[in-house]
Amino acid sequence: MIHLRSTLFMAWAIVWSIATAPFVFVAGPLLRGLWPYRFGKLWRLGVEWGVRNLLGIRPRVLGLENMPKEPCVILAKHQSAWETMALQNYVPDGAYCVFVLKKELLKVPLIGWGLAAMKMISIDRAAGKDALDQVVTQGRERLKQGFYVIIFPEGTRVPPGEKKRYKPGGAYLATHVGCKVVPVAHDAGERWPRQAFLKTPGTVTVSIGPAFDATGLTEAEVNRRAEEWIEAEMRRISPHRYKDAGQPA
To answer: Given Cys at both, which of 89, 132, 195, 223 links 171, Cβ 3.0 to 4.6 Å?
Structure first.
């Protein structure tokens, strides 16, 4: 049954993407304004329909009241492709999100072209300090325009129960702009493993932590606060993945 569900979902995602993605990178830029994001949301909602009804994966959201009403930086755990879609559902109605991503992704056919049309924050990871400045320059502009900025501080998808070093990009942006930061933990990798064709039905728990103001904090302090909350929450929602569950992260 899992094989059938996963096959049907893949077929649906391909057909839906072919049908709707061109609106994002062709019609969207021609109409300008928020149209690329509106068409992007149309694509996302269609794929999410497949996630719910074909894969049988549904979210359980904790702490939604913690999401600020004004644009902020969201620092989230990254385990799968699921959260790149789902996290956008938890900002206030009418608001849109942009992601910080490596510029190479913009060259990927269909998806990459759509990301470029939606003006995601693209950076050259090999640029070192200049890459952080790129995040601030583009991030400040997007926040002023009303977009929420989502960053995966570990920089890549990490399997459940594991952790990589939290990189400074999100903290650097938040401290230089002076905005709120929201930590987010989830266990999407339990249902949608990294680079796995087979996905299993069930519930994904998303936990949105208390927002805190980065104004006056150092990058290290922002990263430490976000990492401590996220990793402690991961042990709470996925205790079977941690031998030290119940102890401080």
So the answer is: 223
3-class secondary structure per residue, the chain: CHHHHHHHHHHHHHHHHHHHHHHHHHHHHHHCCCHHHHHHHHHHHHHHHHHHHHHCEEEEEECHHHCCCCCCEEEECCCCCHHHHHHHHHCCCCCCEEEEEEHHHHHCCCHHHHHHHCCCEEECHHHCHHHHHHHHHHHHHHHHCCCEEEECCCCCCCCCCCCCCCCCHHHHHHHHHCCEEEEEEECHHHCCCCCCCCCCCEEEEEEECCCEECCCCCHHHHHHHHHHHHHHHHHHHCHHHCCCCCCCC
**How far is CA 221 from its chain centroid?**
22
Choosing among 3.40.50, 2.60.40, 1.10.3470, 1.10.10, the CATH entry for 58-241 is 3.40.50
Domain regions of the chain by residue span: 58-241
Q: Note the pLDDT of residue 101.
A: 86
Cα(123)–Cα(71) distance, rounded to whole angstroms? 21
Within 8 A by CB and 6+ apart from 51, the residues are 9, 57, 82, 85
Q: Are 166 and 199 in contact (CB under 8 A)?
A: no
Confidence of residue 246 (pLDDT cuts 50, 70, 90): low
pLDDT for the residue 249? 47
| pLDDT value at 6 more than 70 | yes
